[in-house]
């Protein structure tokens, strides 16, 4: 039987992809290919991992976004990343949470997507 080996990407709609790419490049240092993707073949930290998780339809975890999805970005410095996105006009949400596998913080991007930032434990 063939098996899934990992998540190959996160794909979603945007009313203005170029504007959103530019925002993420400016405020989180993401680098995009000319054809509109950010590619991370060798930058995953030692304790980083990709998670695929279905939430119950009635979850409130994605709020205040009204979207049916949320994505998670791994960062090297959570405090700094949250300050950067806030300077870029994003709404930060809640308080930083420390769990056994890292620090987590959240914001809503210019398109209204809730984004979870994760700094893995070192």
Structure commentary:
This protein has 122 residues and is an alpha+beta fold. It has a domain at 47-52 and 59-120: Roll (2,3-Dihydroxybiphenyl 1,2-Dioxygenase, domain 1). Helix content is 18%, strand content 22%. The protein has helices at residues 17-28, 78-87, and strands spanning 71-74, 91-99, 102-108, 114-120. Strands 1-4-3-2 form a four-stranded mixed sheet, with helices on one face. The mean pLDDT is 87.
Using the 3D structure, state the CATH architecture of the domain at 47-52 and 59-120: Roll
- Structural class determined from secondary elements: alpha+beta
Strand order of the largest sheet: 1-4-3-2
Counted beta strands? 4
Mean pLDDT over all positions = 87
Amino-to-carboxy terminus distance = 35 Å
Radius of gyration, in Å, reads 15 Å
Tell me the major beta sheet: 4 strands, mixed
Helix content: 10-25%
Could you tell me the CATH topology label of the domain at 47-52 and 59-120. 2,3-Dihydroxybiphenyl 1,2-Dioxygenase, domain 1
Q: What percent strand?
A: 15-25%
**CATH superfamily label of the domain at 47-52 and 59-120:** 2,3-Dihydroxybiphenyl 1,2-Dioxygenase, domain 1
Could you say which overall geometry the principal axes of the C-alpha atoms support?
A: globular
Which residue ranges are poorly predicted, with pLDDT under 50 across at least 5 consecutive positions?
none
Report the top-level CATH class of the domain at 47-52 and 59-120.
Answer: Alpha Beta
């Amino acid at each position: 039987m063939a098996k899934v080996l990992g998540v190959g990407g996160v794909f979603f709609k945007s009313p203005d992809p170029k504007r959103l790419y530019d925002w993420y490049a400016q405020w989180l240092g993401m680098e995009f290919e000319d054809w509109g993707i950010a590619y991370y073949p060798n930058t995953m930290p030692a304790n980083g991992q990709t998670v695929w998780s279905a939430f119950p339809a009635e979850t409130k975890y994605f709020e205040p976004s009204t979207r049916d999805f949320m994505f998670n970005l791994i960062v090297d410095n959570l405090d700094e990343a949250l300050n950067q996105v806030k300077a870029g006009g994003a709404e930060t949400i809640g308080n930083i949470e420390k769990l056994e596998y890292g620090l987590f913080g959240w914001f809503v991007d210019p398109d209204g997507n809730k984004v979870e930032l994760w700094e893995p434990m070192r």
